[in-house]
């Protein structure tokens, strides 16, 4: 009976180690994705208030965002990325 318990324990440990390795790989993929999203966010060109043209300062044209809308989108993306990063850090401590 003791051998059975030891064998069962060893099998469970092997499954846990395999799952841990899968989680580590997934974590690395998520970190890579997060890094890519951060680079995209940094690359977004949102003109400063001084650089606004008359068209940018007014209502948005068809298919374009007004400056305020661009800024709002960027702020939302920053919040999303911060939440993802916090979740990754929390998962790393487990």
Describe the structure.
By secondary structure, this protein is an all-alpha fold. It has one domain (2-93). It has 3 helices and no strands.
Topology:
Elements: H1 2-43, H2 54-57, H3 67-93
Helix pairs in contact: 1-3
Name the descriptors.
single chain; 94 residues; mainly alpha; rod-shaped
Which regions are unreliable across 5 or more consecutive residues at pLDDT < 50? 49-57
Mean pLDDT: 76
**Percent range for β-strand residues:** under 5%
How many domains would you count in the coordinates?
A: 1
End-to-end distance, in Å? 33 Å
Q: Helix segment count? A: 3
> How is the main sheet built?
none
Q: Element order, helices and strands?
A: HHH
C-alpha geometry? rod-shaped
- Level of helix content? over 70%
Q: Please state the CA-atom Rg, rounded to the nearest Å.
A: 24 Å
Number of strands: 0
User: What structural category arises from helix and sheet content?
Assistant: mainly alpha
